[in-house]
Every structure is written in structure tokens, then in C-alpha cells.
């Protein structure tokens, strides 16, 4: 072989050997990759070690982060498992702190005050596990707005003592279309065991009463469990509370417009007879069972507010200091003291614009008058039955006067 041929052969062998070396280098790359896998194992050990330094405490905040239309009563709460709470802060977006309390076992927290509507709250929580490692969680939510919620204003008030005719009357600030669920969220019970039924007068008013007057001395309990109840489309209840009131002695007074006398009875026995002056023939007093809903030692009565005006549009009367006035209807019927009428009218002539008048003195300071006696011996919830006036029976929803419906009519107005 010539030298030139030998050189060409050596170069080819060199190229071939270079190719083998290249292939060996690629193969060596794969082996290097396997060596990197060994590094992954080392990294896993590092990750495992880091995980062992992560707290096991698991924090849960309700409502969930970003929630809207949250309840102002029960929504806000914090719980922890596999650990204990060390710090919980709740603030409004302007930084106002909300008072709250961690439970004795340090596994839960809740606000100690009712939340405000249409308010965004932030919650920040820290907890520790058994090894002392900390966990953290944060959330924010917005409570239900007034436009998307309803409340019911109720009477009588908690802790009061009232007469045997006092119904539980609830007026809602939004029209209720889902009456079934709302009524199911309200219960009224009596220690007497009397059956109590609700009656809807309209979309905003729901009253409760038994078939007959409450038993004297009994306790009536109203429970509102309306939190989260949808009263109308997109409108939710926010109330959750329990109130109770006591029924006093059984006092029912009977006004007779013909005899112009009122007989006051307790437990069915007449305890006093009082001469009265009811509505004149032109302005007769409603008939029916009426419940005293308000009491005023003195109050102003202006005829213009109830439709009694003269040719100039002014009230036919405007008395700024009517003594011992007790409301019997929302339309303006009262039983009250009268100092401007002659003593001779009481028991003899019906002269009023529809109220029931009792002899009294100006200033409401004489305890010896019939007006003062009846005022001092009456309470909200007492019944005044007006008879023989010649006028129509008062509408059941004109005041707290649902007793003018039969029990069958009353029950027919229940949604459940």
C-alpha cells in the first residue's frame, strides 16, 4: 500500500473512531442523566425534610374567601384540626377590629358581636400543631346588603308583660313572596300549651295568636330562625333570635255605646263601671274587639291627620294635650281622657269623632278621674270590646285586632 493510501486509511479509521467516540459520549450522556436521577433522589429527601417542617394544623375559615351575601349572624367562623388557634383577627376594610373569642379548647373562633350588612371583612388566622409549627390562612367576604336582605320588626318586646289580647305581630321591611319558608322559620309557643297559628294579612305582615285569648300568667316565646331564608328572589333573612313575654292578668273591658257605660272585667268579673262618651251619630265608633297597642300619658290629636278637616283644610280639632290616651287602631281610634267636654256628657251623650272618651282633667295629674284610673289599670295588650255603636266591625288588620276573625278564617291565612 502506498503511503498516500495508508494516510487516507488512517484518516478514515480516525473518523470512524471519532464517530465511536461521539457515540460513546452520547451514551455517556445517558449515563450522566441517570446520575442526575440520583440527584433527584437527594432533592426528594430535601423536600421531605422541608415537608416535615410544615405545620400539620389545618385551618378552615367560613364563609369561603370571596363570598358575597354572607350572613351577619353565623357566617363568620374559624376552626382548626390537628392543632390549636393562636391568633385570629377580623377587621373591616377600613381596619376596624371585630371582637371575637377563641374557644376554651382553642380549636374554634367566632365573633362576639353581630356583623354589619353590606360590609367587607378580612380574617387572618394563625395556628400551631403539636410540634409548635405555625400555619396561616386568610380570607375575605362581604355580608348581605340591605337591598338583598329583609328583617321583621316585631311586637311585643322581649321581657315585657302584656294583656291577654296581645298578638305577636311581625312587619317585614320587604314584601315576602316565599311565605311558606319564612313562616316555617318562625315559631310562637305558649307555656299554656295553646295552639298558636300565623296569619298573613299581606306580603309584609304576619301575626300569630291562639284561638282564644292567651292564658293569664303564661309565657309566650317567639323564635326567629330566618338567617339565610330566602323571602323573595335574591332577598334573604338575617335574623336569628329568641324573645319571650309574659301574659298578665285577664282584663277585658266592654264599651256599650247605647248605655254609654264601660264595664271593666278581670277574670270575667266586673271590677269597675265607668261612664263614657263614644262617637257621635255622625262619627260612630267602630265595633269589635280592639287591643290596646300604645299608651300615652299625654298626646296631641289633630283631626287633619285622620281626615277630619274644615273648609280651609285645617283639622276640625287640634288638642295638644289629650290625657291618658290608649291606641285601639292604627287609623286613629283611641280610648282617652277628655277634659274639654262637660261632665254631664259622660254616661249620657256620644259626642266624639269616633274615640271613646272618659272624664278627665287637663294636665293628666289627677289620679281620681276615670280617665286616670283606667290608664293606670290598663296595659298594652288589654282588650276593649266596643258594642252597639251602629258602625261596622273594625278591620282585623287595623291595629292589633285579628280577634275579629273567626278561628277558621284565621287559620286560612296561614301559609303552612
Automatic annotation (TrEMBL):
Active site residues per record: 336 (proton donor/acceptor), 355 (nucleophile)
Transmembrane segments: none
A GO cellular component entry from the record: extracellular region
Signal sequence coordinates: 1-25
Pathway recorded for this protein: Glycan biosynthesis; Cell wall biogenesis; peptidoglycan biosynthesis
Annotated ranges, domain L,D-TPase catalytic: 251-387
Pfam families, alphabetized: Big_10, YkuD
GO biological process: cell wall organization; peptidoglycan-protein cross-linking; regulation of cell shape
UniProt keyword list: Acyltransferase, Cell membrane, Cell shape, Cell wall biogenesis/degradation, Lipoprotein, Membrane, Palmitate, Peptidoglycan synthesis, Signal, Transferase
Region (Disordered) location: 29-56
GO molecular function, one term: acyltransferase activity
Name this polypeptide is given: Lipoprotein
